[in-house]
Design brief:
This protein has 338 residues and is α+β, with helices and mostly antiparallel strands. The chain has twelve helices and ten strands. Helix 1 crosses helix 3, helix 1 crosses helix 4 and helix 5 packs across helix 12.
């Protein structure tokens, strides 16, 4: 266990290195921070921190920089989440309130996160498997063709064309629409199959085939895996941190192009808590020089997806964590009200 004083020294090193981009020496630490001890004592503390792997000496510089292990201790023990100011919160709310649909919400969220943090922003679309049905609409396009529109509680809209085995009149179509919504509106997707399994029996024999076809299309829509979509923005921000990436930024850019990699980085949608993965904690080798800050968002108390940012390990963790958490909270409010 590190002493309280050495924890203070580590905090000061992280703060100075993030702010100045320069390796930090003992003299600078004692001048900038009220540590209450002599430069010689700070040097001893820095030597101990280096021996334990929390800081390292780059090249022949007299200063030290935090390691992944040092950043991890900083985040876990020393970094509070920096709250957003009143003007910042109003700016977030005003920017997101103008969204017209789910795609617009996600696009605005990506732009906003990238601007606030000056990092790469990643936003996952709400997962269908964690959603509930808000409404099902059935529209007759031809005597034997129906459009099925599924609207979720997160504002997501899925449309499917249904080719019916026989003509289907307006009256049975209206009856099916009413029966469907009375049974499944407000219910979780996982509950829908057993709620509608006996529905064809409520219709005349000649219409049961069509009802079964419509229900089959509905159930296919509920289980499709196309919900694993995300949007990314602010990649150009990484060019400001070129010297933070060893040799080249290329492996980072290649990793950001892999949607599967990004989804794994964000983590499970159901986990709504703040997650910070630092450097080599990221399983994908191309992102070993980055940190990922992510959090779940959703309406009510349950997360339906994740959002977050990717940037160099030398990032403002308190500020980034505060921005990510604040944006997630506002996106959740918008989904709840939509």
């Amino acid at each position: 266990m590190l002493s309280e004083r050495r924890l203070q020294v580590l905090r000061a090193i992280v703060q100075d290195y993030v702010g100045t981009e320069e390796p930090v020496g003992s003299k600078a630490l004692t001048e900038r921070h009220n540590l209450g001890v002599s430069p010689a004592t700070v040097r001893n503390d820095m030597a101990a921190l280096e021996d334990e792997g929390f800081i390292a000496q780059p090249h022949t510089s007299a200063g030290r920089i935090p390691t992944d292990k040092g950043y991890r201790l900083f985040v876990d023990k020393l970094a509070g989440v920096k709250p957003m100011t009143g003007p910042e919160r109003r700016a977030i709310q005003n920017f997101l309130d103008g969204a017209v649909d789910l795609d617009d919400v996600v696009a605005r969220t990506v732009r906003l996160l990238a601007q606030l943090t000056r990092q790469v922003a990643v936003v996952q679309y709400p997962s269908l498997t964690r959603s509930t049905v808000r409404h099902v609409e059935l529209l007759s396009l031809a005597p034997a063709r129906v459009m099925l529109v599924l609207i979720t509680d997160t504002g997501r809209v899925e449309q499917r064309m249904v080719d019916c085995p026989a003509p289907f009149g307006e009256s049975p179509l209206a009856d099916l629409r009413a029966r469907l919504n009375s049974r499944i509106a407000g219910r979780r997707f996982a509950d829908v199959p057993h709620l509608v399994e006996d529905l064809p029996e409520a219709f005349d024999v000649e219409d049961r085939g069509t009802v079964a076809t419509v229900l089959s299309t509905l159930l296919e829509t509920l289980v499709e895996e196309n919900e694993e979509r995300l949007m990314i923005g602010g990649t150009a921000n990484l060019t400001r941190f070129g010297h933070d990436f060893p040799l080249t930024i290329r492996p980072v850019l290649e990793a950001l192009e892999e949607q599967v990699v990004l989804l794994k980085l964000l983590g499970e949608a159901g986990d709504s808590g703040m997650t910070v993965r630092i450097g080599h904690e990221n399983a994908y080798e191309g992102l070993n020089s980055t940190s990922v800050v992510s959090v779940g968002y959703g309406s009510g108390g349950e997360a339906v997806a994740k959002l977050g940012v990717v940037g160099p390990t030398r990032m403002d963790y308190p500020g980034t964590m505060g921005a990510v958490r604040a944006v997630a909270r506002y996106v959740g409010q918008i989904l709840a009200e939509s």
